[in-house]
UniProtKB/TrEMBL annotation:
Mg(2+) 4 binds at D31, S46, D76. Reaction mechanism of ThiL seems to utilize a direct, inline transfer of the gamma-phosphate of ATP to TMP rather than a phosphorylated enzyme intermediate. Its EC number is 2.7.4.16. It comes from Stutzerimonas kirkiae. Mg(2+) 5 binds at D215. This is Thiamine-monophosphate kinase. Mg(2+) 1 binds at T47, D48, D123.
């Protein structure tokens, strides 16, 4: 490898996803990129840092890491109801390993194409392995999905089965093995989360509050509850859990993953009940898992509608 600029050129500036087109007026190579959101749109911006040993395992596959890093960052755009446009990559590397960089760039490029996002810049430095991705999207002015609009009487919904990524952790860390028909869907949910852009965009003007679940359902519902000054009630029996997760982890661990595991990057949102029939018809994978009450915090209801004490259940988020 011959220095920083050659590295940037070889792996990032020449990547298919780095072509300047659409909303990208100027891409990699100058002091700044230039982004031109459409008229009447606001720019949505979010940053995520992933540190080796904290957010991803040491010595993990570079292709999978590239793919997952962008998906995790881009999921915040989905949560705002934004349309993805572009991203930057600030990379800190202990050494420039050609094979590793090529795989990282390939994984980023794959997810960038899937998300219709372009790489428009970044920074490359020597240091402990970490990636910081800043993502840019656009959303019609005033229509972004915020965390602060949930109202008493709204339904609480999620974008699909929860807990698969958390359930996959023993597989990711090599602590357990499983049959491919169980392992593959769970590992895919960890390494290749699918930001719910279309669902987020469909919820504009309908959902009263929304976010993407990164820290676990109960913890993230707490963010909506705080921002909206309401109580979110989760009905335990309604929490959707996949068959592979139940098969691999067992029912009780599957439920723990669904309630408290993070990393799924599915949307959680509150919805005035009048919108439910049409939403359910168009998005069969969306599940109604609870409702919004006056009060504060998050409560978990058992099969008989009795409130379970989260501290008794050992959830540390409260
Ligand atoms: P400056 O010194 O002006 O900040 P750099 O020398 O760091 O610029 O980067 C040169 C160009 O390469 C810039 O356009 C920058 O955005 C881009 N760049 C640097 N690192 C990366 C990276 N890892 N991925 C994509 N683009 C990058
Ligand atoms: Mg720089």
């Amino acid at each position: 490898m011959t220095g920083e600029f050659e590295l940037i050129r070889r792996y990032f500036a020449s990547a298919a996803c780095a072509r300047a087109e659409g909303a990208v007026a100027l891409g990699i190579g100058d002091d700044c990129a230039l982004l031109a959101p459409a008229a009447g749109q606001q720019l949505a911006v979010s940053t995520d840092t992933l540190v080796e040993g904290v957010h991803f395992p040491k010595a993990c596959d570079a292709f999978l890491l590239g793919q997952r890093s962008l998906a995790v960052a881009a999921s915040d755009l989905a949560a705002m109801g934004a349309t993805p446009l572009a991203f930057t990559l600030a990379l800190s590397l202990p050494e420039a390993d050609d094979a590793w960089l090529a795989e990282l760039a390939r994984g980023l490029d794959r997810m960038a194409r899937q998300c219709a996002m372009q790489l428009i810049g970044g920074d490359t430095t020597r240091g402990p392995l970490s990636l910081t991705l800043t993502v840019f999207g656009q959303v019609p002015t005033g229509q972004a999905l915020l965390r602060c609009g949930a109202r008493q009487g709204d339904l609480l919904c999620v974008g699909g089965a929860l807990g698969d990524a958390a359930g996959a952790l023993p597989l990711v860390l090599g602590q357990r093995q499983a049959d491919p028909q169980l392992a593959e869907p769970l590992l895919a949910r960890y390494w290749s989360p699918q930001p719910q852009f279309a669902l987020g965009q469909a919820l504009r003007g309908k959902a009263s509050a929304a976010l993407d679940i990164s820290d676990g359902l109960l913890a993230d519902c707490g963010h909506i509850a705080r921002a909206s000054a309401v109580r979110l009630c989760v009905e335990q029996a309604r929490v959707p859990l996949s068959l592979p997760l139940r098969g691999f982890a067992g029912d009780s661990e599957a439920l723990r993953c669904g309630l408290s595991g993070g990393d799924d990057y599915l949307l959680a949102f509150t919805l005035p009940p009048a919108h439910w029939p049409a939403l359910q018809a168009e998005w069969p994978q969306v599940c109604r898992i609870g409702h919004v009450e006056a009060g504060d915090g998050v409560c978990l209801l058992d099969d008989d509608g009795r409130s379970l004490e989260p501290t008794v259940l050992g959830y540390q988020h409260f």
